[in-house]
Amino acid sequence: MKSITRILKRLARIFQIIVSIKWIRFWKLYHSKSEILIWIPNLSLLYFGSDAFIWDMATIAGLVAENKEFRMVTGKKIGKYHDKKIFFSINNRYNIYGFDDYTNILLHITRQLEIQGNEVFPKQCETIFWENKTYMHQRFYMAKVHEPRTRIFDSMKHLLHAKIKFPYLIKAEHSCSAEGLFKIASYADLARLVANPDFIRKNRHIIAQELINMRKDLRVILVDGEIVLHYWRINKDKEWKPTSTSYGSEVDFDSFPEHWRQHIIDTFRSLELTTGAFDITWQDDDLSTEPIYLEVSPFYQPNPKMEVRKKAYAFYKQHFSLFNSWDAKYVDVVFRIKQKQVKAYLSASAL
C-alpha cells in the first residue's frame, strides 16, 4: 500500500470518528476523578487512525451513550491504580520487550490489575483467548465444541512420530488472519516447515488439525449472546485455501443459516465470553450437517458491508475512496459493536 493511500485512509477514519462522537456530552461526562478509566498505553503519532485508536474512541462513544463519567489515562504506569474499572483495547503493542509470545504480557497486566481490585474490560479470562490457539483449543475440548480433529504436540519431534495422515493443517500458536496457517499435503511440505527456524523458535506447541473440505466459512460476531454481524467468506477456487479476504475471497453479508442460529449462540455462551468472533464452516459446505467451529477470538476486525462494484472485497480494504469509503464504514461498524460491548460490560459490573 502506497504511503499516500495509507495517510488518506487514516484521515478518513479520523474524520468519521470526529463526526461519530457527541462532543458536548463528552465534555460533560469527562471527569478527572472518575472511577472508569480508558487506558491508552502509547499515545504516539502512529496511534492516531490505527485500529487501537478506533476501538478506544468507540469505547468513549459507548460510555457517552450510557451516560457514564470517564477519564483517559496514558502511559505505562497503569499498575498504580486500584479498585477502578479499566477499559483497554487488545493489540500487540503491549509487548514492548519483543517476546515471541506477544500475548502473555497482556495476560500478566490484566491479571495484576485484577489482583489489585480493578475490573478490566475485557477480563483476564477473556483476554487469554486472544491469538492463543493452544488455550483456545483446550477450551473448545472442555466445552465440547464441535471442531475439526485437533492434536497439540509439545515439539515438532512428537508430531513427526505421530505420522498423521496427509493432508492436514499446522497452525502457529500465536497468529491471526490466516497468518501462521500451513497446509501439509506431503513430507516435502512438512520438511519445509521443520527447516523454518523462525517457526520452530516461536512455537512451543505444534497444533495439527484435520483439513476440512470446505470452500467457505461464516464469520459470526457476538456480544452478550447476540449475533451482531455475520458474513460468509467464499473461496471461488477449486482448491482449498484460507478464506481471509486478503486471499481474494468474496463476501456475502445477506445469507445466514437460521436453523443453526441458536446452536451458534449456545456454543458461544459455553465459552463464557462477553464478545467474540467465531469462524464456522461445514463439511463439504453442506449446511444440513453440524457446524464446525474453527476458531474464536475476543478481538476482531469486523468487515463492513460494502457496495462492491466488480472488484474483490479486498480491493476496498486496501484502497482509498472518497464516496464509498471502506474505512468510514469500518469505523461505523466498530462503533456500533463497541457500544453493545460497553453496555454488556457495564451491566455485568452492575454500575
Q: Helices and strands in order, then pairings?
A:
Layout: H1 3-20, H2 23-29, E1 36-40, H3 51-65, E2 71-74, E3 85-87, H4 104-115, E4 119-121, H5 124-127, H6 133-143, E5 150-153, H7 156-162, E6 168-171, E7 181-184, H8 187-194, H9 197-202, E8 206-210, E9 216-223, E10 226-234, E11 250-252, H10 261-270, E12 275-281, E13 292-297, H11 313-318, H12 326-349
Parallel strand pairs: 1-2, 1-3, 3-4
Antiparallel strand pairs: 5-8, 6-7, 6-8, 9-10, 9-12, 10-11, 12-13
Helix pairs in contact: 1-3, 1-12, 3-12
H/E series: HHEHEEHEHHEHEEHHEEEEHEEHH
Beta fraction: 15-25%
Q: Describe the sheet with the most strands.
A: 5 strands, antiparallel
CATH superfamily of the largest domain: ATP-grasp fold, B domain
Number of domains: 3
